[in-house]
Structure formats: C-alpha cells, structure tokens
Write a structure and sequence with these properties.
Layout (H helix, E strand, L loop, with lengths): L2 H22 L3 H21 L3 H25 L15 H24 L8 H6 L2 H11 L2 H27 L1
C-alpha cells in the first residue's frame, strides 16, 4: 500500500466522522465548524486525487464563502431556549427508511464502480495529454453542459427568491 492510498483512507474516515458530527450536534456553531472541517478534508482528498483546481474551489467557495455566510446567519439569529418548539420523533420510521435507501444507493454505486472501472468521461491518454483544469472544462462544457446550465438556473432562481423574500420582510 502506498502513501497516497493511506492518506486517502485517512482523510475519507476523517470526513465521514466530521459529517456525522455535523448532523448530530445540537449546537449550530459546533455543527457548522465540523462541516467546515469536513470541507477542508474533502479538499485534501481532491489534492491526493490530483484535482488541484477542485481542491482550491472547495476551500475558497465552500470552506471560505459558504461557511462564513452560514456562521454569520447562525450568529445573527437569536436562539432562545424558551422559544424553541419541542421536537417530536414522528418521522423516525420515515427517516430510518430514507437512511437505509441512501446506504443501499451508496453500496450499489460503489459496487458498480468496482464492476465497471473504465467509466471515466475522458480516456487516461486524453487526461495525460491535457492539464487537469483543461480536462475539467472539456468535460463540463461538452458532456455535462445541460446539467451545468440547469444548476445555474436553479441557483439564480434561489437567489432571486431569497431577495424577494428579504425585500418582503423589510417592507412589512
């Protein structure tokens, strides 16, 4: 086993542990910090895989911008213990079913990855001939152009909706 595989496994375990911490903490600040650390661990995995551009984007956009915004919102929203509604566990069965579905989906995806190892969008010879950033751009704007544009329109619609909701609350 080489060092890259060892570090990949180490960071993968760290990211999974931090993800579990993110969804199990009651304190929103602790959860956000664990999520930010998971983002940085994911960036380390990208570096190990040789995707330096994705690692930089992961750190700058997610661990930097999104987490700063989330922490700002968490800190600015007043959280009184008296005003919190007591939570019930009526959806426990549904949540367990959805969780099992996710585990099965991940298992099937991993199994299919082992069965069909040559499922990359570009051949290894093409990747060796061009740089990492060029390969990402080529795949993104040829094979995945439609999903990329759909995600762009959805993000734009969410941004416009957030602005409209914020403006409506200011006018009231």
């Amino acid at each position: 086993m080489n060092w890259a595989n060892l570090f990949f496994d180490l960071f993968a375990v760290i990211v999974v542990i931090l993800s579990v911490i993110t969804i199990t903490r009651r304190n929103a600040v602790h959860s956000a910090i664990a999520l930010m650390m998971a983002f940085v661990g994911l960036a380390a995995i990208y570096v190990i895989l040789g995707a330096e551009l994705l690692a930089a984007i992961q750190v700058l956009v997610y661990a930097g911008g999104v987490m700063a915004l989330m922490l700002f919102v968490i800190m600015s929203v007043k959280s009184d213990e008296q005003n919190q509604v007591k939570q019930t566990h009526a959806q426990t069965l549904i949540a367990a079913f959805v969780g099992v579905l996710f585990v099965v989906e991940i298992g099937v995806t991993v199994w299919m990855g082992f069965l069909y190892k040559n499922t990359g969008a570009l051949a290894k010879s093409q990747l060796a001939a061009m740089g990492n950033t060029e390969a990402l751009g080529t795949v993104l704007f040829t094979k995945f152009l439609f999903p990329f544009e759909v995600a762009s329109v959805l993000l734009l619609a969410a941004m416009v909706g957030a602005i409209v909701l914020a403006k409506y609350k200011l006018e009231r």
